[in-house]
Amino acid sequence: MKDHPILKAARGEKSDYVPIWIMRQAGRYSAKYREIRANAGSFMDLCRNPKLAAEVTLLPIHEIGVDAAILFSDIFVPVEKMGINIDFVSGKGPVLSPVVKTVDDVEALKVPEPEKDLPYVIETIQLIKKNLTDRPLIGFSGAPFTLASYILEGGSTKDYLAAKATMWNSPELWDKLMTKLSEVVTKYLISQIEAGVDLIQIFDSWMGVLSAEDYENHVFPYTEKIVNSIREKYPETPIIHFGVNSSHLLGINNRLNVDVIGLDWRTDISSTIEKIDKSIQGNLDPVALFADDRIIVEKVERVVMEGKKARGHIFNLGHGILPKTDPTKAKFLVETVHKIGKTV
Ligand code: CP3
Predict the structure, then answer these.
(1) C-alpha neighbours within 13 Å on the C-beta side of residue 213
(2) 4, 59, 108, 322: which has the fewest Cβ within 10 Å?
């Protein structure tokens, strides 16, 4: 497993093809996923069901041939065990309650002990590892800022008003919440590594809404602490750090002790690699899978060529695959990356 192209690319070693996995690769674009999901109860029920979550995790390996599996779960799985209820309301996205508003509310939040409070995640990982011996399994967690944005807002937001206002106006509340979330994320990721995941991705999906100054002062130190704690314990497990629309933060994030920085499609790879000394992951526009095949080929060629200049390159979309994507296009993408990655 140590010599798998994804792990080699993460470490900056050359391999004979460009490996690919796709964010949200186990999702609604797959008919089989929709069928399993329809019979599983709620989405969170599916995340808590090891047998079904393991089955769903492995679907894209068989259906589209990606080089790695990513644990089927959600960034809200540990949040629920902090004492916050999560509902997915049609048309509204996730709804979290109660909404955290005071220091006392933060103090009431629990830090889940994964072995005791999240045994189904550990069991899911163990089940996947039994059935997936030739490719890596990716574990993941949301990062404190992205999690805090939902916890303070009570759901999705366009302007991140609650998170930013709390960060500026209530520094004590902010620090207590971010510190607690850092502890939750660290324990959660360590438990995933101990259960058998081969690499991890930290989703700080929404960090790009912050100015560099706010990110550096109010967010970066918490993520840095998480990364360092994991590194200290498991120096061999590669870490990917990802966020959307965050090229203005690359210089700061390059100081994280991670192996790979995930890029969205707006980010130019050539100018990125001048700013960072990490491997890269990405960064085809998810909407490119709605283009004609010849356009997909052209776009893949460009990403692969640019990726060759980086220390290492794991191909991915720049963000999650869209639910309306035709699965044959996703399969075509994987085949194209494998073919082009060998020849370029
Ligand atoms: O990548 C994978 O395939 C692994 C599984 C995964 C899911 N969510 C499954 C999921 C991962 C890694 C996530 C991460 C996640 N979840 C993030 C960060 C990644 C990103 O998108 O930047 C965030 C912000 C969430 C929170 C979340 N979960 C949202 C906003 C939604 C969409 C709500 C909606 O109404 O569609 C979800 C639901 C979700 N997570 C689905 C899946 C497959 C769809 C649920 C369904 O089947 O109906």
Answers:
(1) 1
(2) 108
Atom of ligand 1 nearest to the CA of 47: 9
**CA nearest ligand 1 atom 25, residue:** 75
The pLDDT assigned to 126 comes to 98
Count the domains in the chain: 1
> How far, in Å, from the CA of 74 to the mean position of ligand 1?
6
Kindly give the distance from the C-alpha atom of residue 310 to the centroid of ligand 1, in angstroms, as a whole number.
28
Q: Which of 66, 74, 146 to mutate to test the pocket of ligand 1 (most atoms within 8 A of CB)?
A: 74
Q: Which pLDDT score, from 0 to 100, does residue 10 have?
A: 98
Instruction: Work out whether strand 313-317 and strand 279-284 pair parallel, antiparallel, or are unpaired.
Output: parallel
- pLDDT (0 to 100) of residue 344: 65
Domain of 198 in residue numbering reads as 5-343
pLDDT at 1: 86
Q: So what's the pLDDT on residue 318?
A: 98
- DSSP lists the bridge partners of residue 95 as 87, 155
Q: Across the 344 residues of the chain, what is the mean pLDDT of every consecutive 10-residue run?
A: 94 94 97 96 96 98 98 98 94 95 98 98 98 98 98 97 98 98 98 98 98 98 98 98 97 98 97 95 98 98 96 98 98 97 76
Cα 255 to Cα 116, 195, 224, 233, distances in angstroms: 34, 28, 8, 19
Q: What is the rounded distance in angstroms from the CA atom of residue 195 to the CA atom of residue 94?
A: 28
CATH number of the domain that residue 24 is part of: 3.20.20.210
95 lines ligand 1 (CB under 6 A): no
Which residue minimizes the CA distance to atom 36 of ligand 1? 93
